[in-house]
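Possible regression after last week's pipeline update?

I re-ran a chain I had predicted before the update to compare outputs. Posting the input and the new output here so someone can diff against the archived version. Not blocking, just want to make sure nothing changed silently.
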Amino acid sequence: MSAGHDHGAATTHRSRLAIAFAITTTILVAEVIGALWTGSLALLVDAGHMLTDAAGLLMALVAASLALRPPTAERTWGFRRAEVLAAGAQATVLLGVGIYAFVEGVRRLYEPHEVSSTGLLVFGIVGLAANIASMLVLSTGRTANLNMRAAFLEVVNDALGSVAVIVSAIVIATTGWVRIDSIAGMLIAALIIPRAIIILREAGHILLESTPKGLDLDDVRAHVLALPHVQDIHDLHASTIATGLPVLSAHVVLDEECFTDGHAAEMLAQLQDCVAAHFEVSIEHSTFQLEPPGHAAREHAAHA
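New output (post-update):
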């Protein structure tokens, strides 16, 4: 994939994130005003959710911009991992909001507050319309990377939160049962917490340089050892730099004659083709150190 194509896609993602950020920030201001006016916990929690979403979208926008910066001698991968850090930060803040919302919802079940159903309904509808608009803006790029996925899921859960606010308003208007507002707030929290944990786990998986999901290193080892002239493989490592950028490195021991008859270059091509095309996860960025027999004994430390 050419660098120009990558930059064009990233620019498109930035534009979509900027539009979604503007919509979310506008509705955030409206919901804060609405929560103060109506006294609704559900609307207040949804406003808090909107606040973290606005901050998350801003971080996603900054991360998308940083990802465009080219690698340097100091940062050889550039800022490709900025999207993972941004997604993890979003999820951390969101988890805190979800826990607070649940605790406050339980408290309000025992101490219900008066809620203006009319204002709650109006702001719920406005919030839902804005969330749907943001979903449409982000939908086509949501699978591009973890950063875009986190941003899209933020908006989806906002929409579900707005639905809960609308249902709460209707129930209060028709029955006068104000505890539904607390239940709606707790429902929004129940939507927030599992998603935040999932994103945190995925971001941690990348930051801890765990093996890319779907890649079995035992399978890689077996296929490499099955190649002609390969005697052994060690120091085999695989990780993910950023979404869509898995990397692999290994030391491969070849027959002695490969280094005397010029066959080593052909073996390197076979190894790179093997990891790029044979497995479920395509490793297009691989590094192999080709070694003659006995070279491993000279290395200071050996790994898996």
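Follow-up from reviewer: compared with the archived run. DSSP finds eight helices and three strands in the chain. Marking as no regression found.
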